[in-house]
Amino acid sequence: MHARLLSCFVLCAVTGGALGADWKPAPTPLMTKWGKEVKPDSAWQEYPRPQMVRKNWLNLNGLWDYAITKKDAPKPEKWDGQILVPFCAESALSGVGKSVSKDQNLWYHRTVEAPAGWKGQRVLLHFDAVDWESTVFVNGTELVTHKGGNDPFSVDITDALKDGKGELVVRVWDPTDSGAQPRGKQQAKPEGIWYTPVTGIWQTVWLEPVASDTYVKSIRVTPDVDKGEVEFIVDVVGNANAVLIGLKDGNFSGKPGQSIRCKLENPKLWTPDSPHLYDVQINLTSPDRDSASSDTVSTYFAMRKISTAKDDKGVMRLMLNNKPMFQVGPLDQGWWPDGLLTPPSDAAMKYDIEVLKKIGFNMLRKHIKVEPSRYYYHCDKLGMLVWQDMPSGGVPSRGQLIPPDAKEDAKFTDPEKKQFRVELKAMMDHLKFFPCIVVWVPFNEGWGQHDTNDVLKWVKDYDRTRLVNGPSGWVDRGFGDMKDAHIYPGPGMFPTMPDRVSVLGEFGGLGLPLKGHLWKDTDNWGYRTFKTTEELRENYRLLVRRLHPLVGKGLSAAVYTQTTDVEVEVNGLMTYDREVIKFDVAETAKWHKALFGPAPEYRELVPTSETVAQKWRFTTTKPAAGWEKSDFDAAKWTEADGGFGTQGTPGAVVRTEWKTADIWVRRGFELAEAPTGDVVLRMHHDEDAEVYINGVLALKVTDWTSGYTEFFLTAEGRKALKKGANVIAIHCKQTRGGQYIDAGLQELK
User: Fold this and answer.
1) Strands 679-686 and 557-561
2) Which value, in Å, is the radius of gyration of the alpha carbons in the chain?
C-alpha cells in the first residue's frame, strides 16, 4: 500500500483564470528551497490520509478566491484576489500575506465538479485543518460549522450539488490570542517565543466518493505485543454484513464495530532501528451486494508496545516492547518561514525527520502543534517516536497562563473547558491510529493548565495504549506516567520515583544566529547564544556528556530545544530556512550514540540542599582577599541552611533568603579518600557563579539554570580535591529576575 499512495483526479480551480499565471508568493524575510518550487498546480498533491486509503479522490488544493470582511458582513459580492490553498492568509506561500483580526472574517470561494465516474456515489468534502471556526456552504446551503484549528472534519455534500457541480464557500473566524481556544504559539503581535498568527485553511482540502449504501468510517488498530495479536475495530456507515481483513499472515473476518483479533506468526516488532509496518486491506460486504465488496480501503499497522516498568536495578523506565529504551530527541515545533504552520511540501516535512534520524535521535516532541497525517506516516516509516503535545490555549491577561510555582490551576469558564476537551478528544481520535505516537502531552508548562489531574486522568482512561506526561515542565500535580523537568540549559532531572518515570522535557536552547538565514537581523535570542559554530558545537557536546550520567541515575528521556530556528529564536539544530545544519551530522550522531551505552554511576561526595538542608556560611558584603582559600577565617560569616535565593525562582529550594546583588558562600567537608573518577558539581545557579575548591578555580559559569544541573570541574579544580578536609567556596552574582545558589559534589564511577 505504501508505494501506491494512490491515483488522483486533479481538478483545477475554475475561478483561477489561466492556472494562476499571475500568482506569486507574498514578501517574506526567508524562503525555503521547497517554497521556491511551489506553484498553484503543484501545492500538496499527495494523498492526504495514509491511514485509510481509497483509490479515487479529488484534490482541491490550488487557487481559490478570497476576501477579508468585517465579522458581521455577508458573503462578499466581489473578491479581494486569490489565495493558494492550503497555505494560511498570513503566510508568504498563500500569495496573500495579510493578517486577519478577531473583528474580521476570512472568506474562501471556488467551484467544484465531481467526476462523471462518481455518479451514484456519495461525495464527501474533507478539510484536514482550518483555524479556527469554519462554516461551509455549497450552492448557498449552509452545511456545517466546525470549531477547532487542528483536527480534520468532513461533510457529505452530495445533496447540495447540482448535477455534480457546486459553488463552494467557506467562512472562517479566528480570535487568535484574544480567545481561550487551543492555538499553540500564535499571537496577534508575535515576539520572542510567540509567532505569527495562522488564519484559515492550512491543510489539504479534498473530495472523496464513497458507496451510497455502506462504507468504512474509521479504523481502530490495537497491537498486543505480549500475545502476538492485533485487534481491528472497523466502524462503518450503512448496513454491512461483514468486515474482511487481509494480512500477509492470513485473512480474518468479523462484524462492523466489533473486535476482530488477528494472530500473527512470528510478529516483527516496530522499533526506531527497525520500523516494520504491516500492510492491510479491508473490505466490506453488504446485503445489497451479495458477496461483492461495497468498500475497499488500504491501511497499515505496527507491532509495538509502550509502557513503564522497573529495570533490573529497580528504577522506573520507559519501555518499548518491554525493554528499557532511553529516548532522546528535539522539541519540534514544525514552523516554516514561508508556510508558517503549513510545510511548503511533503518533501520538506519529511526532510526534517530524516535529518533528525541521521543526527542520532530516536524521538521528537511535537510541540503544541498537530501536523498533517502524512507527517506521522513518515515517522512510522522512518522509525521516529513521537510525544504529541496538545496545542495550548488561554488568555494570559485573564490569568490563564499560570506561573511555575502556582498553587492553583488556571480558571477557565465551563464553555472554555468544554471546547478544550472537544478539541483534545478530536486530536486523539485523529492521531491515535499512528504507532509512532507513544506519549500524549496535554499541558505544556502553565500555558492554559486547568483541571490538571482531571484532564490527565481522562486522557489516560481514553487511550490505555499510550503514556500520559504530567504537565511538561513547571507545575506538577502528582499524576501522569512521567514527571517532566524543564531545565535550561541543563541537563538535569527530578529524583527517581517508585511509580513515575523521570524525564527531561526541555533543555539546551543553545543559540547561534547565522547571517543570511535570519527572520530578523537583530533582536534574535536563544537560552544561550554563541558567536561561532565551534563554540556552539563544543557546548552542545558538553551538554550531551553531562546528560549521560543522568541516564545512570534514572533519567528516561531528554528533549533538546530545538529542531530549527523559529522566527526570532535562533536555538535550532538547523536554520529556519533549513539551509544550514549547524552541527556536523556524523560527529553529533556519535555523541548521541554514546547515550545508549552503559551509563556511569554516581557516588555522593557533598550533598546539595535539594532534599535535606545543608549548613553553609555566607556573607553579602564583599569579603577580604583570599575568601576562597581553605585557610580563610569565615567565623564571622553567618551560618544558615542552603539554598539561598528568592521564592519563586524556577527549580529553587529556598531555605535562606538572599535578595542582594552578590553572595559569597563557603562550606567545609571531609573526604575519607581522594576521588579516583570524574567529579561533577551539581549546582543550581541564578545567575553568574565562580566555584573554588580549596582556593583553586574549579568552574566559572554565566547566566542561569532553571534547575539543578551537573557541571564537570576544570582539571585544576578536580586535582585540588584531597583526602581529609576540603572547602568549597562560591561567589554568585545577581543581575535580573530570580536568584539562587546551591551546590554539591558527586563522583562518577
Assistant:
1) unpaired
2) 28
